[in-house]
Amino acid sequence: MKRISLLVILLIASAVFAGIRWDFNGDLKVNLQDVGLVSAKIGLATGGSGWDSRYDLDSNGVIDSLDVAIVVKYLNITDNMALVPAGEFIMGGKISVMPDTIHVYLDSFFIDKYETTVQEYVEFLNNGNAADYYYDEQRKPIFQKGDSFFVSPGSAKLPINNLTWDAANRYCKSRGKRLPTFAELEKAARGTDGRKYTWGNAIADSGMTNFNYRCDTTYMNRYPNQNMDSICVWSWLYTHPESVGSYGQDVSPYGVYDLCGNVSEWSNDWKDPSKVPNYYWLLIDARHNPKGAPTGTVKLSKGGTYADYQTKVTTFWSYLTGDPLIYRSQGLGVRCAY
Ligand SMILES: [Ca+2]
Ligand SMILES: [Ca+2]
Ligand SMILES: [Ca+2]
User: How many Å apart are CA 177 and CA 335, to the nearest integer?
Assistant: First the structure.
């Protein structure tokens, strides 16, 4: 019995070990201990005694300072990022661009725990990216004085919205990161058990995530004889973005916030130009680190917005957008991956 439980523990430990490339001691964090472990292997080469290819992160046959540098780089980047371990997850659902669920494998990756904030975007603008400033008539979270940009009072922690895919892409690159793929955003939100919401399978209700509360069950119970469409009046007056991380329930199994609501988020993936929504996902390529259609005219977003009904603030909701250089929306923001 003892031997069996030891075996189980070893199997779990090795799965965890295999799951996160830069986490050598299996504590699910990339930390200084991991730097220490790879440093201790410096000088080992393929074929030598004690060789362990797991520490040769650039796969050049020798463990050296470059491999240490790779771990240090990931260590630096984990600030406010969550690590999503490698493995399969259940992707798709009835109201997504993938009407059926499929099992999809992804390598491990890091993702921002929070949507990019107005404060972070203003720093980006002031760092030589003035061309990526868009005047937002509706919310005015940023204002310009001379050559400098400033955060409007109360807007620092709001998610940046109303930015093009092109600007979102440049922002992530400026942080040494990249836009997440469509599949990465979905896995970061729902983990491996196929849940519909970051918190589980209970439908969104008041206070669980930032969505159109006028459609929640409290409101509907108050007006039982009206149909939902007449109750759920779409209005910017009643809904607005909230500071990132404000909703303790909209947090995924990996500790990532606001993936169901607040603002929908740009992914790196093209929608398949064939116009058949799920066509790409029928390809065998879609089962292993999918990166979207090879080309297209429209990028896919992930997650619902502060103006959406309960039915859209799910882990797999998606919006078709528009020209990546031009299209902007009040309900569309960004978070980055690595
Ligand atoms: Ca570790
Ligand atoms: Ca190496
Ligand atoms: Ca969101």
Answer: 10
Own/partner contacts of 56-62, CB < 8 Å, gap of 24 or more, are 57/21, 57/22
The token pair at 231 is: 């109750």
pTM exceeds 0.70, yes or no: yes
CATH (residue range 89-113+175-333): 3.90.1580.10
Rounded CA gap, 264 and 305, in Å? 5
What residues does CATH 1.10.1330.10 cover in the chain? 21-73
Confidence of residue 85 (pLDDT cuts 50, 70, 90): confident
Give the model's confidence band at 234: pLDDT under 50 very low, under 70 low, under 90 confident, else very high: low
Q: How far is the CA of 263 from the centre of ligand 3 (A)?
A: 4
The CATH 3.90.1580.10 portion of the chain extends over: 89-113+175-333
Strands 142-145, 148-151: pairing is: antiparallel
- Ligand 1 centre to CA of 35 (Å) is 9
- What is the whole-number distance in angstroms between the Cα of residue 26 and the centre of ligand 2? 20
* Residues β-bridged to residue 257: 251
Number of Cβ within 10 Å of residue 161's Cβ equals 27
For residue range 144-173, list pLDDT tens digits in order. Answer: 999 999 999 999 999 999 999 999 999 999
pLDDT digits (tens, 9 = 90+) for 18-56: 457 888 998 878 888 898 999 999 999 999 999 999 999
Domain 21-73 has CATH 3.30.420.40: no
Do β-strands 81-84 and 109-112 pair in parallel, antiparallel, or remain unpaired?
antiparallel
